[in-house]
Amino acid sequence: MNALAGRAAQAVTSIRVRLAVALFVALLPVLLIGAAQSFFAFRAENDARRQSLELAAGHSATLARARIEAAGVLLQTLGPGSVGLECAQRLADVRARLSGYANLIRFDSRGRVACAAATTPFDTQRGARAWFQALRNGDSIVVASAPGAAYANEPAVLAAVRAGTPDRFDGAMAAVLTLTNLKLETASRFMPNGAEVALADSNGAIFAATDPKAFEAVSARWRQEAAKDGSALWSGRDQDRRDRTYSAAPLVEDDVFVVLSAPAPGLVSWASLSPISRGLLPILAYVLVLAAVLLVTEREVVRWIVYLQRVAAIYARGRFTVRPLQAERAPPEIRELANTLDAMAGAIVTRDASLMDSLAEKDALMREIHHRVKNNLQIITSLLNMQQRALADPAAKAAMNDTRQRITALAQIYRALYQGPDLKRVDLRPFLEELTAQLLANDMTTSPLVRTEVHADPLVIDPDRLAPIALFAVEAITNAQKHAFGPNGGKLEVGFHVRGEEAELSISDDGPGAAESLGGGVGRTLMTAFARQLRGKVTFESHEPRGLTVRLIFPTPQVVDAAA
Hints:
It is a single chain. With about 575 residues, the protein is an alpha+beta fold. The protein contains 13 helices and 17 strands. It has helices at about 1-10, 15-75, 80-85, 85-95, 130-135, 225-230, 270-315, 330-390, 395-420, 430-440, 465-485, 520-535, 555-564, and strands at about 105, 115, 140-145, 155-165, 170-180, 195-200, 205-210, 230-235, 245-250, 255-265, 425, 450-455, 460, 490-500, 500-510, 535-540, 550-555. A hairpin with a 3-residue loop joins strand 9 (about 245-250) and strand 10. Helix 7 packs parallel to helix 8 (about 330-390), helix 9 packs antiparallel against helix 10 (about 430-440) and helix 10 (about 430-440) runs parallel beside helix 11. The longest helix is centred in the N-terminal third of the chain and has 63 residues, at about 15-75. The chain is rod-shaped, with a radius of gyration of 62 Å. It starts with a helix and ends with a helix.
């Protein structure tokens, strides 16, 4: 888990991530400015669209009002005095000559149809209708938002003028005008795509529309604003719950209004397409610039850094012969860094060669020193041997022989050092075998009759610990030679075993000697001193019926080094 967390942290803090973050922050103001410009452009576009819709409503109302006023003039011209007996025929002729009228109708004072240019729906309550009563009460012209009957097969409005004198009501002349006749067309260049047009009464109720579903059911909240300011603009939902924008303008005073309905700006609508495209372009440019910079940086910088990192990892494993040849295609800075890395590897190789030469020279010198020390110790041994033969006192000869044996052990250490592969370490097992043979060979009177067995575990040890072990073995073997072996010889066993944290050196014989035979002599004192030097202990064990084992137990050298 720690390794995974470390790799994750390294990935997060890598040069790629840091560079990407830096570029993101550096280019962020450009993105914010582009987004702000797109937002303000969208608002300006939306305001312009709403204003266009409002102007379209006023323009449509103006055209429709002019059309109704023209119809009023026509109806006044076709008053009762000018129609004559052939009323229906004349109205039909006028309707045929003047396009734009669905029907022309003459009503009497009770609301009954006197004559008409086309078929007129039957309505028994026409005389009581609000628009007819308004004419009866003195209004000169009325646009009927709710005429009470369908006077055309398409959305239409009924315009009527009073017939008679101010003191006498003789009925009305009416013209039926469709929305198309009123020039309320949705395909006008003033209209946005998807626009619908309708007529609403003073209460806000829609009574004629190109598409009734495109308008709110009944709402008069905009009527006061339209009557006051000449137009009104608001947003709402149609009968299908779709967002739309509405605009209204009065057609006939405060009684009839022209209402336009257009779809509200959506994600892909004509009004928002341009602002959104202006907003997407900075984002797209931001993404492209960020990707381009990251790509160029990856190919021109990061991949060369990764390449040099791999070369450095190879150098870390000691392979300095590898050269960064691929860096020749890299930018000058990377190429210079690669050359520096190559020069550093060459310098390391040269220095390693020099160090190896110095080390080889040092090893040769140390081996020569060990050889000379061994030779000097052998010279001393030879001198002691000559001096021993010149002595007549047996005690003096024995003391001289013990000294010679100790010096022989030290010489054997130096011989093992300069002949071995390591100048600082000696394998204890072959050393004990050779030392035992050397000590017994020096006593020509007993060695042929002494059988030796050496059982040693392998252990590489330094000279500082080998010296007391060797001298301990010399004292123990010398003691066996003196007290255990007679003219018939005997058996000598040398054992060395490593048991975990402790190592044990044991030297056993089968002679008649016992532990008390050592007394308090120099040999026992030296063995105790050597054991203390190794931070170990020495024991002497007698065996029945014959035999003595001298045992040295001390901490294993590797364990001692670890503790230190």
